[in-house]
Amino acid sequence: MPTEKTLMTRDDALKQLSHIARERAIGRHVGSDRLIQAGLDALIAEVESPSLAMLAGLLRSEEPEAPALFDQVLEELGLLFHPPADPRAAKWALGYWIAGQIADGTLDPATGTHLIWADVAYDLGYPEELQSLVSCHFNLDEWEESWDVSVEELNREAVEAAKQFLRRRPAAEAGS
Question: Rounded to whole angstroms, what are the CA distances from 23 to 1, 30, 71, 117?
Answer without folding.
Answer: 34, 7, 13, 17
